[in-house]
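ok new one. same drill as before - structure tokens go in, u give me an amino acid for every spot. 282 of them this time. try not to just spam alanines like last time pls lmao
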């Protein structure tokens, strides 16, 4: 019996090996999961916007980075550029420039937002800097969960002057010394020398046309708050501009058919403006 038991033990199959761990369940968070994500309040900065740019002021994110803003009242979502790294008022997560507040559709009152750090593709950065890069609206189930993380609205009157230039103290001026005697003016007879001919004045550069030719279709490339940049982009693309409120829209065309407009949109995308779209030329 012992001999038979030993023979049977030698014929047993080997024990099954444990399957290797699934690499998709790694405990290390990815880079995108570690990016800034917060829920709070935003207001409009009292600092003057010299160039009328669309930007946000954030206390921790670096200037030149981008954030995705979601309004908890309605779910509208857009991407904007961090223009300044500076302190904001107590109780707020960031501040908006006056033009950015208009582009987002909020007034001077505090607005509840979700702010996330994002890195838009290169062809979308021009639209993000102009405040026209929009995303799909957030669903109501997500907005309900985010509102539970929202702190009470900050007290009124706590909007600081962000980014204002501090004036250096004026040092006392030394007492003025008596100046020289006034120069005696002697009236001379009129000169007999004939004046030089006036130098020819170069004609000013032709701006991008804001009154396009007729056509039922157009391609909208971008919407910028800086009119100078919008005109330069329109000249580069051979298009025209159309001002709508605080934004200047850059368009190509117009085109007589939708197919021709689609070819124009493909040309804009090939030049790095992948967010361009075909619209009615109204």
């Amino acid at each position: 019996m012992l001999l038979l038991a030993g023979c049977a033990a030698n014929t047993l199959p080997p024990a099954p090996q444990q399957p290797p761990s699934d690499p998709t369940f790694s405990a290390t968070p990815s880079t995108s999961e570690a990016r800034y994500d917060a829920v709070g309040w935003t207001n409009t900065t009292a600092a003057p916007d010299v160039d009328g740019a669309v930007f946000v002021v954030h206390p921790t994110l670096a200037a030149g980075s981008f954030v995705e803003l979601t309004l908890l009242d309605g779910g509208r979502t857009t991407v904007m550029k961090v223009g300044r790294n500076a302190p904001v008022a107590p109780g707020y997560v960031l501040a908006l420039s006056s033009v950015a507040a208009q582009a987002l559709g909020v007034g001077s009152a505090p607005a509840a937002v979700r702010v996330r750090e994002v890195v838009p593709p290169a062809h979308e950065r021009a639209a993000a800097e102009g405040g026209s890069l929009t995303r799909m609206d957030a669903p109501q189930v997500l907005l309900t969960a985010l509102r539970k993380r929202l702190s009470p609205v900050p007290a009124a009157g706590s909007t600081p002057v962000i980014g204002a230039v501090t004036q250096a103290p004026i040092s006392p001026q030394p007492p003025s010394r008596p100046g020289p005697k006034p120069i005696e003016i002697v009236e001379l007879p009129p000169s007999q020398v004939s004046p030089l001919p006036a130098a020819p004045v170069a004609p000013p550069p032709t701006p991008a046309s804001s009154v396009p030719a007729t056509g039922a279709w157009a391609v909208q490339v971008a919407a910028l708050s800086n009119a100078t940049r919008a005109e330069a982009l329109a000249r580069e693309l051979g298009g025209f501009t159309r001002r709508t409120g605080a934004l200047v829209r850059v368009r190509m065309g117009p085109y007589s058919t939708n197919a021709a407009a689609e070819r124009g949109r493909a040309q804009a995308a090939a030049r790095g403006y992948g967010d361009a779209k075909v619209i009615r030329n109204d």
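The radius of gyration is 32 Å. and btw The longest helix spans residues 258-270.
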